[in-house]
Amino acid sequence: MSILYSGLRKILSYAVELYYVDVQSTGREFIPEKGPVIFAANHPNSIMDTVILGTQNDREISYMAKSGLFSNPAVAWLFNQCGVIPVYKKPRPGKNNEDSFRRAYEVLEEGGTIGIFPEGRNSGEREMFEIKTGTSRIALGAESKNDYTLGIKIIPVGLNFENRDQFLTSVLVRFGDPIDVSTYKEEHLLDDRGAVRSLTDDIQDRIRQLATHIEGERNVEMVQDILAIYGKELLLAIENRRQEERVATSVGFDALREGDFDLDKIDEDILKSRDPRGLRNWLFDEIKQTTQSSDLDDHFFLKERVADALKHYRKEHPELVEEMKLEIWQYKDHLRQVHLKHHFVSKDPETLSFRKEALKFTSYMLGGALPAAWGFVHNVLPYFLTWSFAIRAPDEAQRAIRGLSVGAIAYPLFYAPFLYLIWILSFQWWVVLLYGLSMPISGFFFLRYRRQLARYRGRILTRTLFQTEGNLLASLKSERADLIASFDFLRQDFLESEEAGRVVPRLGSSADAEE
Questions:
Q1: Own/partner long-range contacts of 427-436 (Cβ < 8 Å, ≥24 apart)
Q2: Hey, how many other C-beta atoms are within 10 angstroms of the C-beta on 361?
Q3: Helices (DSSP H) in 317-353: which residue ranges?
Q4: Which of 72, 200, 305, 378 keeps 20 to 30 A from 329, CA to CA?
Q5: How far apart are CA 229 and CA 227, in angstroms?
Q6: What is the maximum span of the chain, computed from C-alpha positions, in angstroms?
Q7: All domains of the chain, ordered by start, with CATH?
Q8: Does 201 score more than 70 pLDDT?
Q9: Which residues contact 35 (CB under 8 A, 6 or more apart)?
Q10: Beta 22-26 vs 37-41: how paired, if at all?
Q11: 175, β-bridge pairs
């Protein structure tokens, strides 16, 4: 990895951790440490996709990017130094895609890594466009040029943003099982175009399994509504099933300590190789299975499963979906009338202590007021400047990168006068350092402080409404209970339909999740 690329990667890794509240990745074990690799990912968030993908794996990636991004000389120099390969929509003399393909071949022949977003443009937040054939043509072309000896692997990647237009959102990166390009050798020798098409279809199917792909804006909204009401129950069902499997299949700490475990559970290749690292990794995986897994992957997985069920019922029982849509709309409208959220209505009125909630609210408000005020004073101007520039982006997919770029300039500029003043007053470097660290930390605290106050206020409001509007709240609880009962029935019916083969499953979907 070049010094420039490594340095940029570290800087961007810190920036990503600040900009997003949570970034998780799964499937990193699929990424080989060496050898030619092509990362093929969906493209929901403009240039931020390259930042996220580059910071979530240890390989140096040469991205394929639109030639228009090279129009600025400074940017062009930086891209060239980082190995970015331009792709030309309108070829010009001396600049065409034959050169781009040739450079891509060279990277792969040297055992390097290429990053491609095969949709060729920014996709919807929850929907993928049809992908182009460029990824397949590059992979098969490079293999053909080298007598199919390179061993190129195409790793499908799903980039999932909880809300790509929101500051401090969550991101899940899913790396999938690699596609071995050499398996298309025979087909490619017989039919060039047919092999390209087959490989392209394979790539698209796999990316769609890893990205949260929900067809149609109306389906996106309904999936979000269902999860808001029913998501807790679905997550609990998954965790209960997972716990049962842990008990049934995990080795257990006592057995690991005493060496009393079933060797039949260990992959035969590990035993035959007599590689202590392989055995150690297997034991480590067994231990990890006894720990709580990340719920971010479960969260996006549930979105996909609910979307699958919704698609099934729209096809088989469209009248049922419309009826359910109306019931959800009525329930949401009733919630809006009393300014409540779904989780408030799910609480038993007897469990809500007005005095206790009021005491919590007062204590938190007074205890956090000073650091929150500190964060507000030092961050309000650069925050709104960054927000105002981001919101004016031509489309929402570009807002994140614009916000990140403007923020990287605005915050240091606004912090500098404060730091200079502290230096003049103290002439102590450690005082300046502590002051400088306090500004961004207190800024993040202010954002969470404001949200927490809103939560406490909502709980107190809920308790007050339970006291004064008992009939209305009882009606809302009854509505929610009826919706959950309906969802329970439909979930069981959908799972039975899958078992009976009446539902076409997603490629590579998990059959063991009890959702």
A1: none
A2: 17
A3: 318-337, 342-345
A4: 305
A5: 5
A6: 79
A7: 3-213 (3.40.1130.10), 219-338 (no CATH), 344-468 (no CATH)
A8: yes
A9: 111, 151, 153
A10: unpaired
A11: 157
* Count of other CB atoms within 10 angstroms of residue 424: 8
Per DSSP, the three-state class of 159 is strand
Distance, in Å, from the CA atom of 92 to the CA atom of 113, rounded to the nearest integer, reads 27
The torsion angles phi and psi of 281, rounded to 5 degrees, stand at: -65, -35
228: which 2 tokens? Answer: 């808001």
Coil, strand or helix: which one is 73? helix
What is the distance between the alpha carbons of residues 19 and 51, in angstroms, rounded to a whole number? Answer: 12
Report d(CA 273, CA 410) in Å as an integer: 56
Amino acid at 100: S
Is the model's pLDDT at 119 over the cut of 60? yes
How far apart (Å, rounded) are the C-alpha atoms in residues 278 and 450? Answer: 49
Pairing of strands 153-161, 179-180: antiparallel
Chain position carrying tokens 């991101």: 171
Determine the Cα–Cα distance for residues 463 and 376; give it in Å rounded to an integer. 30
- At 398-456, the pLDDT tens digits run 666 677 778 888 888 999 999 999 999 988 999 999 999 999 888 888 877 887 777 66
> Is there a contact between 30 and 195 (Cβ–Cβ < 8 Å)?
no
